[in-house]
Amino acid sequence: MENIVRSLTEKYFKSENIAAISVLDNRVIVTLQNIPEDKNAAEALKADILQSTAAQKVNIIFSYAKPVSNLNEEPQMWQIRNVKKIFAVASGKGGVGKSTTAVNLALALSSLGKKVAVFDADIYGPSIPTMLGFEGQPAISYDGKNFEPFEALGLQAMSIGSLIDRDTPIIWRGAKACGAIEQLLTEVNWGEIDIMIIDMPPGTGDIQITLSQRLKIDGAIIVSTPQDIALIDAVKGVNMFKKVNIDILGIVENMSYYICPKCGNRDEIFGYAGAKETAEKLGVKFLGEIPLNFAIRADADNGKPIVAAEPQSPYAQAYINIAKKLI
């Protein structure tokens, strides 16, 4: 089917603008790059694919509205002293549990003997201070030049959320937001760190591209739910990191299933095995499933995520199993 879809796509768009074609059972996702969005051509292509193949769902994604000519330039790299490895935890869209996954994976890596730092790059919606229990505490600088990281549950952490009131919106353009991230990353006394987990903002915008260009990121972890709409955006996230030559460590399926505490029945509320199938189609690793559970949400809201609060629970073990794969 993929060859048929490619042939049909080339009727409407140039071959160099076809970034990726993914066929996931009865769903086709065509990702186009470096061209303005053309809704009429997209609708015509969608109709052709539905008529010519067994596909029941077709999504046409325009990954960039204009050519991104600076992706292959050599910008000045940001230097973070004494940090051996940097993993980015990202998602194509918000609301899939990316920050919860980032924090619990950091705690899981720490429980396996690694010295771990967490950096909150989700500058417009910082949640790490709440999840790690240091919300409302001011950042400290002893020399007036560098911040001291927050120490929470065995982790080192820093977030823009510690420098502003929780109800104050950050209304910054991309350049200013990226400048703040650079300062918070490079002007912190991190100490000796084995692995830094960066909680990325959702999407594929200025901050993601800047971090990918300016940091030596050793790999990206994509978080998605099994839901179709989330998987479409997860594909965008994978393609973005591939575009800037960052390895994809794998995909984590969050809110994968729900087990009723009374009857033990398992429900796939958001769909079944969608992230696993997407990983297979994209040729990246599937790292594991995280169930939908009240305790995961409640523990994070209370400032002690489940890997720290209930380390022997099966939900904490799900994160620890993923951390072992990352190591």
Short overview:
The chain has 327 residues and is α/β, with parallel strands linked by helices. The protein has helices at residues 2-12, 39-52, 98-111, 128-131, 174-186, 206-214, 228-243, 274-282, 294-301, 306-309, 314-326; strands at 18-24, 27-32, 57-62, 83-90, 116-120, 150-152, 155-159, 193-199, 219-224, 248-253, 258-259, 266-267, 286-289.
Describe the structure using short key phrases.
three-stranded mixed β-sheet, 35% helix, eight-stranded mixed β-sheet, alpha/beta, Alpha-Beta Plaits, globular, single chain, 327 residues, Rossmann fold
Q: What order do the helices and strands come in, and which of them pair?
A:
Blueprint: H1 2-12, E1 18-24, E2 27-32, H2 39-52, E3 57-62, E4 83-90, H3 98-111, E5 116-120, H4 128-131, E6 150-152, E7 155-159, H5 174-186, E8 193-199, H6 206-214, E9 219-224, H7 228-243, E10 248-253, E11 258-259, E12 266-267, H8 274-282, E13 286-289, H9 294-301, H10 306-309, H11 314-326
Helix pairs in contact: 1-2, 3-11, 5-6, 7-8
Q: What's the CATH architecture of the largest domain? A: 3-Layer(aba) Sandwich
Radius of gyration: 20 Å
Helix content: 25-40%
Q: From the 3D structure, determine the CATH topology of the largest domain.
A: Rossmann fold
Average pLDDT, to the nearest integer?
A: 87
How widely separated are the two ends? 37 Å
CATH class of the largest domain: Alpha Beta
In what range is the share of β-strand residues? 15-25%
- Strand arrangement within the widest β-sheet reads 6-7-5-8-4-9-10-13
User: What's the total count of β strands?
Assistant: 13
CATH superfamily of the largest domain: P-loop containing nucleotide triphosphate hydrolases
Sheet with the most strands?
8 strands, mixed
| Uncertain regions spanning at least 5 consecutive residues | 65-69
Listing every helix as H and every strand as E from the N terminus to the C terminus, the arrangement reads HEEHEEHEHEEHEHEHEEEHEHHH
Number of helices: 11
Mass-distribution shape: globular
Structural class: alpha/beta
Number of domains: 2
